[in-house]
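Let us walk through a complete example step by step. Step one is to write down the protein sequence. Step two is to encode the small molecule, NAP, as a SMILES string so that its atoms and bonds are unambiguous. Step three, shown after the inputs, is the structure prediction itself.
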Amino acid sequence: MKIGFIGCGNMASAMIGGIINKGLYKAEEIIVSDALEESLVRAKENLGVVTTLDNKEVVEKAEIIVLSVKPQFYEIVIDQIKNVVKDEQLVITIAPGKTLGWLDEHFGKPVKLIRCMPNTPALVGEGITGICLNKLVTDAELEEAGKILNSFGSYEVVPEHLMDVVVSVSGSSPAYVFMLIEAMADAAVSDGMPRAQAYKFAAQAVLGSAKMVLETGKHPGELKDMVCSPGGTTIEAVRVLEEKGLRSGIIEAMKACTVKSRSL
Ligand SMILES: NC(=O)c1ccc[n+]([C@@H]2O[C@H](COP(=O)([O-])OP(=O)(O)OC[C@H]3O[C@@H](n4cnc5c(N)ncnc54)[C@H](OP(=O)(O)O)[C@@H]3O)[C@@H](O)[C@H]2O)c1
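Step three: the predicted structure of the complex.
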């Protein structure tokens, strides 16, 4: 087996979907375990992967292991698998707050570790994952992990102290963007637009604006200024957003998110 996932919820399913769709590994080269039999039945039906209720079997059979359970279950799972993890295996983690030092201590022996923070847009192949790694991971292993992460979006290597910032800027930020889209649609509905159409306009405007930032390389402020004609409609909205504290609201919210991540 090429890769194994311990825990088959939202994030594991998104990652596996990307891996299979991009043809990186075949479904039969992927093994997953979960605490719930129903989740495994669903994984087998939807993804066609090999399943087991035994977390240790995943480690015994897979070359790369992804720990895709919630952070509170990391300790239990690591306790179950630490004696079966082999020197040459690569362990990928996706839980906020579980540092390389914490992982090292709980495995109690040298293990090749890549700590990742993905996000849910991985479900539609548009994820971004921040990663850091320990010294045992070779360049070839990083390259292989990179192919996995690129199969559902893209990735960036960051120093470990920035992993909590990755949590707020991309791990959690889809939630703030969904709130923005919801609010934009609510305003459009309030001004008479049917709701389904309002979501389409709002979501596509966010998607297109994000693409403009990524593809033009222009400063977001310059792109904003391009929409604001003198004495026009947009600058009126910008004036009210500044008055209501949109920017400082976002900055404060994200700083709270980073602080929470550091406390986990
Ligand atoms: N969702 C996000 O936006 C996001 C973003 C970045 C990182 N992450 C991280 O990704 C990880 C997974 O998150 P998720 O949203 O995919 O969670 P999830 O949907 O709850 O999936 C976790 C799965 O693991 C199973 N599980 C629990 N204990 C287990 C055990 N001892 N052995 C095997 N399987 C077990 C759960 O089963 P039950 O249903 O029976 O509990 C569940 O199916 C978390 O560490 C999370 O912090 C999530």
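Step four is interpretation. The longest helix spans residues 195-216.
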